[in-house]
Each structure stands twice: as structure tokens, then as C-alpha cells.
Amino acid sequence: MDTIRLLILIDSVAEDAGTENQVAELVARIDRARFEVHLCCFEDSRRLRELARYAATAVFPLTSIYRLNGLRQIWRLRRYINRQRIDIVHAFMQKSNIVAVAAARGSGAKAIVAARRNLGYWQTPFYVRLFRCLDRHTTRLLANSEGARRATIEIEGAAPERVDVLYNGVDMERYAASGGDPSVAASLGVPAGARVVGIVAHYRPVKDLGLFLRAAKVVAAEVSDAVFLLVGQGPLRGELGRLAEELGIAEKVFFTDGHGAVPDYLGRMAVGCLCSTSEGFSNALLECMAAGLPVVATAVGGNPEAVEDGVTGYVVHDRDPRAFAAPIIELLRDEATRARLARQSLERCRERFDINAAVRRLEDYYARLASGSGAG
């Protein structure tokens, strides 16, 4: 079989966040006997340079698509696609999806794949119209959950038969091997004997960390040794700190502010949470499951696809703090149930969401596209 030339386009891989990490894992793990990988970004970064050991890398400096330099970079990318004889262009993120279609349409590429990894909460009427137009020139739309697929069909009017689903994967060894380093949480002041209820999320509105803190107040009133850990960083840090003070639970709430490794914090938790108002398919949920945690998550996007309600955790349909707190309290009070759901959470993650299996599925997907046999 001929080598398949794959170009992955993403705005940047600099940030330690879900999509960026998934792309980095794909580039590092893809079978280089089958694929020649090109990773292209709009900005340089340390991680992009590190990934040059696995792929050819290129930077197309771009801030705005709608200025002269934007057109220049689109033209440069088109020339790159043709010069490198790229077979498949796979774009991630909003700006990259626009540029990929503009550059690859009419080039020598056999297929253009546009990622759909959220519920479209960011889309304005302008972008809805734009993406409806771009979709007609895209070979396939690839969602990371059935929830994201439904949103793509409903919002963009995409033909259902052109929208595929492949789930994200997680590095099981990274999260399950050591159980984490408890001293990392202790360095934040987390008491040694406390039971930790945690959430891994950027401190931004869509994650609804206010719901987590309000539920924490309810849990704290019922479970005296419970404390609450917010693993992440972001623009709402000050607001969240003030809310914890107003709720009277500041002494039980700990913020990592971006310090430390996520697996170490997960290893200290008893329950993992996710309160998002919109979610494609949460990498944070997979990390909790890979660490052997039962999960309590809001019923949005792909969350119910990751968490089997009552088996590996609980899916909460009501955004009321008491409704979200109730399953957390149950898990903290009933150690047998918590241990059973934790074990089943780990097993489900290992069976369905292992990163190596996810990359193999994506490789087969690319191979079908390159052969012209379709990918649905």
C-alpha cells in the first residue's frame, strides 16, 4: 500500500488543552509506515518543534483570515498541499477549518476532513452561514461524539450521511499506572485525611464552575471531611475565588492555577465531576475514568456517551446545585458503591477509549478516504 500523505491543520498546539493534546497524541502515535504526516499551525510553539520528531512541521503565520495576509497564507498553504502531494487534509478548530477548505478546495488533495468537536455554542449567525457554505466543499465532517454530530446536522444543515463519529482516546498508562503523587495536592494545603471531590476544567464560562462550587456547598453541609479541588486555570479565577468566599466554603476549596500534573491530582480524588453547559466529548471525563474515578457529569453533548449512568458514574439532567450534589453525596457516603463504579469506570475506559485503539480507528478512516471508498 502506498504511503498516505496526511496534513493536519490546527491553529496552534501550544496550549495544554483537549483538542491540542488529542492532535499531539495522534501525531506521535500514528503509524509512520502507513502515513507521512505534516503538522501545520498558524503560530510556532515549543510543542510544535517537539513534534517535529514525528512529522514534518510548517507555520503559516495568521491572525486574521479576512486581511491581505490571510489570503497570502491561504495561497501559501495551497502551494504546500500541492508541492507535498498531500492526500488528506484534516482541520481542527474554527479558523483552521475555514482556511483548510479555502486552501485545499481545487488542490491535489483527495479529501478534506473538517473536525466538529463541540455543540457549536460559539457560532454566530455569520459563522453558521459561512460553515453551511464551506460544508458543501468538504469531503467529510468528523465529530467526536453523537452529540456533536447532532449539533452539526441541526445547526449547519449538514447531510447526516456526511457526518461521521470517532471518539477521542486517552493514554491509559499515564493516568492509571502510578495512582498519582498525593504530595502535589498536599502542597496546595489539601488535608491528608480529606475526601477530595474534583473537577478538571479551564476556568471559563462554558465549564460552569459556579455550579460546581454551589453544589460543593451542599456536599460540605452533608459530608464534613469533603474538600473541593479545581484543576485548571483561566480568566474566571478571581470570580470563582470570590464565589467560594460568598458561599462560606473558601477553606474547603483549592485551586491549582495551572500548577502540577493532572494525573497527580486525579490520584488524590474520590469523585470526578464535569459541569459544562456545552461539551463535544470531554477529554477531562476520559482522564477521570482512566484514573479509576466514578464521575458525576451534566447531561450535555457527549457526556452521556462517555458516562454510563448508574454504572460508571451519574449523569445529571437538572442544573440545580442540589441535584448535582446528590450523587456526589451518595458516592462519598457509600464506599462500596463508589468502589464498584470506580472499577467499572476504569474498565469502560480501557475497553472503549484507549488512545492506541482510537488512533488505529482514525488510521483506518484515513485509509478509506485515500482509497476513495468513503468513510461513513
Q: How is the main sheet built?
A: 7 strands, parallel
Q: How many structural units, i.e. domains?
A: 2
Calculate the terminal CA-CA distance, rounded to whole Å.
21 Å
- Beta-strand content bin: 15-25%
Return the string of H and E elements: EHEHEHEHEHEHEHHEHEHEHEHEHEHHH
Question: What structural class should be given to the helix and strand makeup?
Answer: alpha/beta
Shape: elongated
Describe this structure in words.
The chain has 376 residues and is of the alpha/beta class. The protein folds into two domains: 183 residues, Rossmann fold, CATH 3.40.50; 181 residues, 3-Layer(aba) Sandwich (Rossmann fold), CATH 3.40.50. Helix content is 44%, strand content 17%. The protein contains 16 helices and 13 strands. The protein has a seven-stranded parallel beta sheet, with helices on both faces. The protein has a six-stranded parallel beta sheet with strand order 10-9-8-11-12-13, sandwiched between helices. Strand 12, helix 13 and strand 13 form a beta-alpha-beta unit. Helix 9 crosses helix 14. The radius of gyration is 21 Å and the shape is elongated. The mean pLDDT is 92.
Task: Summarize the helices and strands and which ones pair or pack.
Blueprint: E1 4-10, H1 18-29, E2 35-41, H2 46-50, E3 56-59, H3 68-83, E4 88-91, H4 94-104, E5 111-116, H5 125-135, E6 140-143, H6 146-156, E7 163-165, H7 172-176, H8 182-186, E8 195-200, H9 209-222, E9 226-231, H10 237-246, E10 253-255, H11 262-266, E11 269-274, H12 283-290, E12 295-298, H13 303-306, E13 313-316, H14 321-333, H15 335-352, H16 355-371
Helix pairs in contact: 3-4, 9-14
